[in-house]
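QA checklist item 7 of 12: single-chain prediction sanity check.
[x] sequence parsed
[x] length recorded as 205
[x] structure emitted
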Amino acid sequence: MSDEYYDEEDELIEAYCVRCKNTIEIENPQPVWTRKGLPATRGDCPDCGGAVFRMGRTYLHDGHERPDAVELNSGLRGKLERDTVYVLYGQDDEAIAEQLAADLDIVGMAVWLHRHDEQTVQWAGGVHPALVQCKRMVLVLTDRTFQDTTLPQTWQYFRQNRKPIVIAQMMGGVTPPDEIRRSPRYDFTGDYKRAFREMLQVLSS
């Protein structure tokens, strides 16, 4: 099928719901784009009602103009909201991180998603402003976390500055890095809603 043509009646827009542990047909799907200008779809799970996120173009993107990717040297304008949570994740886990961020946003928690394309930018003081301003970090842990060699310097900055780090374990059989293995860890591979509530209590304290 050509990227330029989609038959709405033939195409089901599906995504993996990390709460239900199942691939579902997205309810109320909306075309969106990531900061890099990549197409994605955001919507609701028909079973649990939670937000789901799927990377890739669908027929919903037809007729919509793709925005430009975020400029790498645009900086962080102004201050982040108080108690903004820094969500750190491996580059291949973007859909999972977006889904978790959407859930945090629903309950009123401000979120800053890690930007993988800004590693070479020279910020004032050598540190991205979001790392300085965010008070807490959530590390999305899967087996792909360790494939990204740029992540350790980020969680090490939080640890060195005595900022709380919590771990959202999205895949079983994966052990956290030694430096942060004592951080609170919440198992999202089982009861997602329970793990989310428990993690939220710590982030809100």
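[x] summary fact logged: The chain has four helices and ten strands.
[ ] second reviewer sign-off
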